[in-house]
Design goal:
The structure is a single chain. The chain is of the alpha/beta class. The chain is built from 30 helices and 21 strands. The strands form three sheets. Strands 8-21-20-19-9-16-18-17 form an eight-stranded mixed β-sheet, sandwiched between helices. Strands 1, 2, 3, 4, 5, 6 and 7 form a seven-stranded antiparallel β-sheet that branches. A hairpin with a 2-residue loop joins strand 12 and strand 13. The longest helix has about 40 residues.
Length: about 800
């Protein structure tokens, strides 16, 4: 038990001494990815390795013009590194704003300090939702229990009595207390496990899964195809016996490089990461901290949004509107009891409100029973002028269960949307323990405490937005169902509120979720169960909240969203944090997620179509023993103008298309046929020319044909064609024409063209290929194989 000296906490001099000695709680806080991780993931990739090998081969040939493709690799890597470092700085800075604090008692005053400023022997003041910042020993416990699930995996709270050890990283579930810090910094459990505490399993990202599967498929395919390509090049130039008799090996090697370059979707991973990173930066500017980049995608897939009332739909800032006498207990004595409830360092927000209105030095606290979400009341035993009395303060339906008239009055006030608490004096001994209900305990009603909550001004519009987007909104609050229903009505939500305390089984809760969307008196366990029930129905669930009672439901949801003022436990398990507590930020997150999904799907089609026609051209030219139809620099020209530059703009363009499952199948259903059409276009254009005219002219004409069909693939994927998209298409087409007309660039890219029959053939074949792309797209739309781009 705390003595008078210990209760004061450390003095300023003692704190300074410990800080000077290094006995502080400095520990490595997890942030975004390290600089080394960013460099490694953008440089050392499978495709960069293959293209680096090709570039080395070009260096051996001595003509760096054919190594122009490597500039795309360098630029891609630099863009990715710069964007991710920028994102890291923005997100790390934002993360500091969301970092939890600890409450300690120093010099007799309770102060809130960052976790890293806790020093050895500090006296921690513990309340529900607080994170234990360093190892400590309980000095005083009032029903104190800890949630150690993030450390041990056990979901049941563990009760802690005086003298028991507290491990850093756990969170206070119920009760209150004081604890003395016994280990900080490198000596504490926190320094070893802080990263693990705040780490969650990765959210399920369909985009990330689709991209990874595409890369796996390509890694299986590229090895054999490259081998076939190399053998085909050797045979096309006379076999090993004649390959090194003259410069044929140079031409064979150059052909192999061109074939391999055509197969690599070098920008796909970059643009996926870029889309996520830009979304995270933009959201950070709007005070939304993205703790995992893929979370912006997940909200776009959400079809059920579960909300807590307090702090989400309302501002969470309660104010005392007044009290109303409901019994014969003297008002002065009842207000002294309210002062005693308010005079609790470890109390909740209600205690803080009471302390600003009710003050008294007449009482002495003998015992406290902390508030429990299971019993819905808190209690205390106090002595006033030598007389001992016991009191309870809590939900009217629990405290006034046997007093119908007083309960009716409380419900009438709650029906106006105000929060109502009942204060009563117990006529029987106050129950011992934290989770003991008042059943059988006689009480004398004293006062109704009326607390006002302010609706968030943005809430009605935000809820309306989600309704328009076919996202079901479910309100789950621990407050009186009458109050919750009144708040919901003010927000234009329909339906009656259900008292979740009457739902005894999971089956009853599942049935209630099937017919209602407004719930009051929901326990933390029921919130978590409700999330699981909705997920088992195949729904993608987001959960918002700010209290410790929301933490486990937020952790289990597909997407957990915490308010900026949320408890440390709630922030630790969330994927998004609304730093400024503005509920209306969620539509921005939804829009960002939809843009990322739709745009990455769009550019993936472009890149994979290129890979498909690259593989097709490599195999055909190897089988029929043709010189490869393109030089590396010519493929680079087509890829840069028809794929690379447009994809960069398209990946970041606005896109409000509603998410539809099946991203990977749609990509494959579109990119494979269009890639085959583009590859066949190049084959048809090249076949009659490579022996009829000089090889460099045949390659130039084939490049024109491939650009035409590639441009039409891009045209289809940019629809609807807004003004800026017309400019984009026109710009890349004009750039290609200028490359062919300007002598210097034409020489650089080996574009030897004349206004003759060969060029007309190439353009005509390219036009036919474009018609094939258009016909396939229209057929696919009618059959539902692809969706409108937006």
């Amino acid at each position: 038990m705390l003595d008078a000296r210990t209760r004061e906490g450390l003095s300023a001099a003692q704190v300074a001494e410990r800080q000077a000695d290094g006995r502080v709680n400095l520990q490595r806080q997890p942030g975004s990815r390290s600089l080394g991780d960013i460099l490694r993931e953008n440089i050392f990739t499978l495709f960069n390795g293959i293209l680096t090998g090709c570039f080395i081969a070009v260096l051996l040939l001595g003509d760096l013009r054919d190594g122009f493709f490597y500039g795309v690799v360098v630029v891609n890597a630099l863009i990715g590194i710069v964007q991710e470092i920028r994102a890291k700085r923005v997100l790390d800075k934002a993360a500091l704003l969301a970092a939890p604090e600890s409450r300690v008692r120093r010099g007799g005053e309770v102060v809130a300090i960052p976790l890293q400023e806790v020093v050895l022997d500090d006296l921690l003041v513990l309340r529900p939702g607080d994170q234990i910042p360093a190892d400590a020993v309980v000095a005083e416990s009032t029903g104190l229990s800890l949630d150690e699930s993030l450390l041990t995996g056990e979901s049941d709270p563990v009760f802690k009595d005086e003298g028991e050890q507290l491990l850093s990283g756990s969170h206070v579930a119920t009760g209150t207390g004081y604890a003395v810090v016994t280990a900080v910094g490198a000596d504490s459990y926190a320094s070893k496990l802080t990263s693990e505490i705040r780490r969650h399993s990765l959210v399920h990202s369909e985009l990330r899964d689709a991209t990874n599967r595409i890369l796996v498929y390509l890694s299986w395919i590229l090895g054999p195809v490259i081998l076939v390509t190399l053998i085909g090049r050797v045979l096309a130039y006379g076999g090993f016996g004649e390959l090194f008799t003259d410069s044929r090996w140079r031409r064979a090697l150059l052909d192999a490089v061109a074939a391999v370059v055509g197969m690599i979707p070098e920008g796909l991973v970059l643009l996926t990461s870029l889309a996520f990173g830009v979304a995270a930066i933009q959201l950070a500017a709007r005070k939304v901290l993205v703790q995992e980049l893929a979370a912006v995608e997940v909200l776009a897939r959400v079809d059920v949004l579960c909300l807590d009332k307090t702090g989400t739909l309302t501002t969470g800032e309660l104010e005392l509107e007044g009290t109303e006498s409901i019994g014969d207990v003297p008002v002065e004595l009842a207000e002294t009891a309210l002062a005693a409830f308010g005079a609790d360092d470890t109390g909740n927000a209600t205690s803080g409100i009471l302390s600003t209105r009710f003050r008294s030095d007449r009482f002495r606290i003998e015992r406290r029973v902390p508030f429990s979400s299971a019993t819905k009341y808190s209690g205390l035993v106090m002595r006033v002028d030598g007389e001992e009395t016991s009191w309870v303060l809590g939900a009217p339906e629990r405290v006034l269960a046997d007093h119908a008239e007083a309960l009716r009055r409380a419900n009438a006030i709650a029906a106006t949307g105000r929060r109502t608490l009942a204060l009563a004096r117990t006529l029987d001994p106050l129950p011992r323990g934290t989770h003991v209900p008042l059943t059988g305990v006689r009480v004398a009603p004293a006062l109704l405490v009326v607390l006002g909550e302010t609706l968030r001004s943005e809430a009605p519009e935000t809820l309306g937005y989600f309704s328009e987007q076919a996202v079901r909104v479910v309100v789950m609050s621990g407050d009186n169902p009458v109050t919750v229903e009144a708040i919901a009505r003010a927000l234009n939500m329909e339906g009656e509120a259900i008292d979740a305390s009457t739902l005894g089984t999971d089956e009853e809760l599942a049935d209630a979720l099937g017919r209602a969307s407004i719930f009051g008196r929901v326990s933390p366990e029921q919130k978590r169960t409700a999330v699981g029930l909705l997920q088992r129905e195949g729904r993608t669930v987001a959960m918002t909240g700010d209290g410790v009672n929301d933490a486990m439901a937020i952790k289990d949801a597909n997407l957990g969203i915490a308010m900026g003022t949320a408890t440390a436990a709630t922030k630790a398990v969330s994927r998004l944090v609304l730093l400024d507590n503005r509920f209306d930020r969620l539509p921005d997150v939804l829009a960002s997620g939809r843009r990322v999904i739709a745009n990455v799907e769009r550019v993936s089609n472009i890149f994979l179509a290129k890979t498909v026609y690259g593989i097709l051209l490599a195999l055909v030219s190897a089988v029929v023993l043709w010189p490869f139809p393109f030089l590396p620099r010519q493929l680079t020209l087509v890829s840069t103008l028809a794929i690379g530059i447009p994809s960069f703009f398209l990946a970041l363009a606005p896109n409000k298309r509603i998410y539809t499952p099946g991203v990977l199948p749609r990509i494959l259903r579109y990119s494979i046929p269009t890639g085959v059409i583009a590859g066949l276009t190049a084959v048809v254009a090249y076949a009659p020319l490579h022996r009829a005219i000089p090889l460099h002219e045949a390659r130039s004409v084939t490049t024109v044909a491939l650009f035409c069909v590639s441009l039409w693939i891009l045209c289809v994927l940019t629809r609807p064609l807004t003004t800026w998209r017309w400019f984009l298409l026109g710009g890349v087409a004009a750039a290609f024409v200028l490359v062919c007309l300007i002598p210097a660039t034409a020489t650089f890219f080996e574009m030897h063209l004349s206004l003759d029959t060969a060029l007309a053939w190439g353009i005509a074949v390219g036009a036919v290929g474009s018609v094939g792309i258009e016909l396939f797209y229209r057929f696919a739309r009618r059959r539902g194989l692809v969706f409108d781009r937006e």
